[in-house]
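In the design runs reported in the main text, the only information available to the sequence generator was the tokenized backbone. The following block is the verbatim input for one such run; it is reproduced so that readers can re-run the procedure and compare outputs position by position.
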């Protein structure tokens, strides 16, 4: 199973694309709880809902 997260800076959560593509926020913690699930963080800092 794969879970895709899309959103703004709250979802992006200071991602460093080369070394930490999940960020430091809720997406990271969900991945820690769901070890057998693929988690993707596609949040973009600065975007608003209309721009996603």
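Verbatim output:
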């Amino acid at each position: 199973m794969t879970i895709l997260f899309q959103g703004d800076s709250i979802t992006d959560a200071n991602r460093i694309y080369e070394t930490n593509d999940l960020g430091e926020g809720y997406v990271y913690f969900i991945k820690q709880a769901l070890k057998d699930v693929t988690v993707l963080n596609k949040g973009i800092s600065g975007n608003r809902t209309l721009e996603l």
